[in-house]
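Record type: monomer structure entry
Structure origin: computed from sequence
Chain ID: A
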Amino acid sequence: MPGSIRRLLCCLGLRDDCHQVLSHSLCLAQALGAELHVLHAVKSLSDDVMNTLKANIRQRQTLEGLMEQRLDQARGRLDDFLDEFWTSPLSEIPSRELIQARAVVEGYPAAEIIRYATRHDCDMIVMAANKRGFAASWAGKVTKGVVKRSSVPVVVVPPV
């Protein structure tokens, strides 16, 4: 029998459906008395792009600086989204203090989400369906990858 849900992982792709995902995650965390982790996974650059960068940028420090700048920009977008979320005119938004941690990771998003959930002992993952319309399947590639690999429940928030 599963134990209580103490830690939720909210995965944000920073698209249109993120407001719904964060709202549901906050409500779940508040109702369960759980802490909430917010994660944005950035897809790694392709091997072709990395090889081109390495061939044209000979200084290792410069290349590493550019890669870190890419993650810093993603962190900035996540922070901007969170700031905008709390300044939006939505009513009854749970407290910002429910968010215990926020992180940006790089890699294959589904694998990175599972890795983060495992490392931080998350009991549930909340993420967007990432599909719209009648012809679309129930979930996008990343969401399906997380559902397939996860050892904890995954809540899929449908688009509005």
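Annotation 1: The radius of gyration is 17 Å.
Annotation 2: The longest helix spans residues 60-87.
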